[in-house]
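Predicting holo structure, zinc ion bound.
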Amino acid sequence: MMQEKNSKQKKLLPFLKDKSTIERELFKNRLNEKKLLSSIESALSQKKGSPFVIPKRGQPVIALMSGGIDTTVVIGMLIEFFGLRVYPLIIDRQLPHSRKIKAVCKDLSDYFKNKYPTHFHQPFTISQKMPHQKFSLLYRFENTILFDQQREGIPLQPALYAYLAVQYGKYLRATQNVYPQTIFGGWLPENSEWYRYESLSSLRSTMLQIATMEHDFSWQFTSLAIEKELGLYLSKAQLVAIGHTLGIPLEKTWTCYKGKRHQCGTCPPCWTRQQAFKLAGVVDETIYKEGFNLKNKFNDGREFLRDVKRNFIKK
Ligand SMILES: [Zn+2]
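Done. Tokens:
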């Protein structure tokens, strides 16, 4: 058993970084504001010795599940590397491609349930429009550029996920006598180049808020991909590489904004996805298929070029 544990964890070693490397990368992004982050972290450390403590093997945790590559690989990592029992939470924002995501999550759940019958629990789905449907006009600003490459986004989105996850934890305690108090998302360091609220400082401030409001510092909220206390600060390509190592059927995950039968392969998320496979040196077995609508094709192209300009030419 011990040997098995070691050989599994060895697979993670090539992806771990030392603290100074992570901090150097972290503070290249000014949104992580060094002083602010260190005060939030020292408040958390005072209570439990460290800003984040990984629960012991066999403990229950909540993991947000979206059907995308990031949250899927995070779920695999939590089980394989940390031996945690995962209670997935799917938050259905009722987007145009929600039906597709539902089917994808079902497929991935079947895979995980079959592979980890004791550690992967039945996902729980909550339908929740974000922003609230009365404010649905705000949705059109999701990709509005504010400054640099920052997008307006859905106000406070990670915190909204965290609040629902806390409620789910309490619901599990009431109904199943398990009490997961650590919540994982799959946000990557590169995400906060787009959305300011996906920075580590933002996630840490949400953790402090939950713990303070609950008056219980057992509550934790983080993204495994940027959890520096574990030596993790992963790019999307690294996440693809880890997923591949773990044998996760990555081609089943869904990235595309469109809810077509196959992913389009040309919208910005599809493009980022393809790049990640390429950089990871992993064969991308995803089926991409563009629609036959010429007008859409033209618009996709323009959108794509705008995105490339925004994200790569500036760097
Ligand atoms: Zn697409």
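The beta strands are 60-64, 85-92, 124-127, 182-185, 220-223.
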